[in-house]
Amino acid sequence: MSSHSRKIGEIAELLGTTPRTLRYYEEEGLIAARRSAGGTRYYCDEDIARFRAVLRLAETGLTLDDIRRLAGEREKHPTGAQSSREVRRIIGDLLNSVRSRQESLARMEAELSAAAHAIEHCRACGNPPTRQGCPECPINALLGESDILNLVWEQAHPSP
Questions:
Q1: In contact, 71 and 30? CB cutoff 8 Å
Q2: Strand-pair partners of 6
Q3: φ, ψ for residue 41 (rounded to 5)?
Q4: Angle, vertex CA 119, rays to CA 118 and CA 120, nearest 5
């Protein structure tokens, strides 16, 4: 990698983010900027690669604590063997977390798809979109099965 230095605005544009986001990651200790005599931040290609990794990990839903833990673990150990064991353990934890989120997202995708299909029944309905206005609505029977439909559909209000 070359050591070509760039300013924070250039890097933000290159990575499709904002200078504020990059400064935040620096403040959180994930990147160490070099500074000119006037205080301007400069970053090399290695820093850009690190920013890119942090942004990708954050985009997938990993917490800043998870990213910080992964980013800082290697240097804590006196040997490569110790470092490798601990980094591998952290990566294993993160893999489990990602897999759990994937399963959760798959369940949500199925529920959203089922809700979209169920709502198709109402496309040509001329009744008011309330339980009272459409007491025979087929969606009413599905409300106990779908958090999405429970959120979208009117809640039953107790009589005064």
A1: yes
A2: 43
A3: -75, 140
A4: 90
Interval 127-147: pLDDT, tens = 887 777 888 888 888 887 888
Strand order in the sheet with 6-7: 6-7, 41-43, 34-35
Q: Give the HSE-up count for residue 144: Cα atoms under 13 Å, Cβ half-sphere.
A: 1
Q: What is the pTM of this model?
A: 0.70
Query: 94 with 62: CB under 8 angstroms?
Result: yes
Q: Which amino acid is at 105?
A: L
List the domains of the chain with CATH numbers.
Answer: 1-59 (1.10.1660.10)
Bridge partners for 14 per DSSP: none
Q: Please give the Cα distance from 7 to 5 (Å, whole number).
A: 7
Type of residue found at 129 = P
Q: What is the pLDDT of residues 45-99, one digit of tens each?
A: 999 999 999 999 999 889 999 999 999 899 899 999 999 999 999 999 999 999 9
